[in-house]
Write a structure and sequence with these properties.
45% of the residues lie in helices and 21% in strands. By secondary structure, it is α/β, with parallel strands linked by helices. It has one domain: Rossmann fold (3-Layer(aba) Sandwich), CATH 3.40.50. The strands form 3 sheets. Strands 7-6-5-8-9-10 form a 6-stranded mixed sheet, sandwiched between helices. It has a two-stranded antiparallel sheet with strand order 1-4. Strands 2-3 form a two-stranded antiparallel ribbon.
């Protein structure tokens, strides 16, 4: 399955409407890495909006089965992919597990939580793909548990070239419900941003490091 353009736009519209995606090109956010960014994305907000949650759950479930075939289980990535992953697993009627950001420092010391004996292969659910590093660390953790990772589905991707390269190197196919270019077009169409702000947002996506460096030096 390839997500139709109208479906991608609908997801982007929802994320903008509920402010899961916020755009501030002239007053940028500071990411955990310390870099400045004109966009902040928190897809966990969709869980508080039943209509949005239902649309995303159903679309993600369809994408999982049509792109990768029905897996034995779904694996959510902590923290943003856990709730959506559980919803998708419920929709498909299959087992669920989740991957911690790091192994527990006590108890069993596990990083992957769930009854892994119920599954041989999984599709990973993620809320956001940025650099791809944390997503692929979760993929590696699942493979270390001898689970086949059929692929990954995320709600949103910034579309960075280095992220695509990392997924290719890890031999992990992925799909997204919507992406940065679609969101940007939708934001302009809906009046969330003006044409001059669109130019700033486009320049960030082409070279986010230089964009951040220039503003930190200003």
């Amino acid at each position: 399955m390839t997500i139709a353009s109208d479906q991608r736009r609908k997801v982007a519209e929802f994320l903008l409407r509920i402010k899961a995606i916020q755009l501030r090109p002239q007053d940028p956010f500071t990411w955990a890495s310390g870099r400045l960014s004109p966009i902040y994305c928190d897809n966990r907000k969709l869980l508080s909006h039943p209509a949005v949650r239902t649309f995303v759950r159903q679309l993600a479930s369809e994408l999982v089965t049509e792109r990768f075939g029905k897996p034995d289980g779904i694996a959510g990535v902590a923290t943003g992919g856990i709730a959506l992953g559980a919803l998708v697993a419920q929709e498909l009627g299959i087992p669920f597990c989740y991957v911690r950001s790091s192994a527990k420092a006590h108890g069993t010391g596990r990083r992957v939580e769930g009854d892994l004996d119920t599954m041989r292969n999984v599709v990973v659910i993620e809320d956001l793909i940025s650099t791809g590093k944390s997503s692929l660390e979760a993929v590696a953790a699942l493979r270390e548990e001898d689970l086949e990772v059929k692929g990954l589905v995320a709600i949103f991707s910034y579309g960075f070239a280095d992220a695509r390269a990392r997924f290719e190197e890890a031999k992990c196919p992925f799909e997204v419900l919507t992406d940065y270019p679609t969101m940007l077009a939708q934001a302009q169409a809906e009046g969330y941003i003006t044409e001059d702000k669109t130019s700033l947002l486009e320049s960030w996506s082409s070279d986010p490091v230089s964009w951040s460096d220039q503003r930190q030096m200003a």
